[in-house]
Amino acid sequence: MAPSRHNPSKDTPDVLGLILAAGHSRRFGGDKRLAALDGQTLLAATTARLAPHVSSVVVMLRHGEHARAFGLPAGTHTLQAPSSPIGMGTSLAAAVSALLVSSEPHHQQCKALALMLGDMPGVRAETLQALAGRARHDNIVRPYHQGRAGHPVIFGRAFWPALAELQGDEGARALLRRYPSRVVVFDVNDPGILTDVDTLDDLSSLQ
Question: Does residue 46 sit in helix, strand or coil?
Fold first, then answer.
């Protein structure tokens, strides 16, 4: 199946990208977000990969952090996670809660949210384009490669209030189980949707 054409414009908000980057890289042995990849940080590389396929990007950082420390482009919109230790679900809920009350026009008008992890720069451009093209206000688009689910997952705006209520470490899996009839499974020939960077060996495989 040929990928759907999707040419987002910064002036016509459509799908918003949310990159979660508030974790602590315990297996990596340092702050993997700052690891060098192709002349930029790992987080900047992930952001640059997603940005052309969404109307705008929001990056969630740890409390007290700023975009410039990670080499993110000037003007990158960031959110800060709560200062107390939190799990993936709580972090995602905090980000979506902020987006629901945001006064930014892009945040108010977009119909869906592409949820990406900050250590996944290997997702192919054509995959991101095709996923964004399938986004709707009332569906959830989930990519699969060889039977395994990956990222980004795109949540229609109808599901944002439920995302804002998540707690703990589970992330959005509970939401996927709650609304199985609204999940659009999209098979892709792209191992990048499964490839995150947890160790130095993982990083080396991308270089």
Answer: helix
The domain spanning residue 187 has which CATH number? 3.90.550.10
Question: Is the overall model pTM greater than 0.90, yes or no?
Answer: no
C-alpha to C-alpha distances, 21 to 38, 61, 66, 152, nearest whole angstrom: 19, 5, 12, 14
Tell me if 156 sits within 8 A of 132, measured CB to CB.
no
pLDDT in tens, 182-200: 999 999 999 999 988 766 5
Number of domains in the chain: 1
Q: Is 46 among the domain residues?
A: yes
Q: Are 90 and 43 in contact (CB under 8 A)?
A: no
CA distance 38 to 207: 7
Let me know the angle formed at the C-alpha of 95 by 177 and 123, rounded to the nearest 5 degrees: 70
Range of the domain at 141: 15-206
Beta strand 15-20 with 56-61: parallel, antiparallel or unpaired? parallel
Query: In percent, how much of the chain has pLDDT > 70?
Result: 86
Task: Examine residue 67 and state whether it is found in any structural domain, yes or no.
Answer: yes
Distance (Å, whole) CA 201 – CA 131: 28
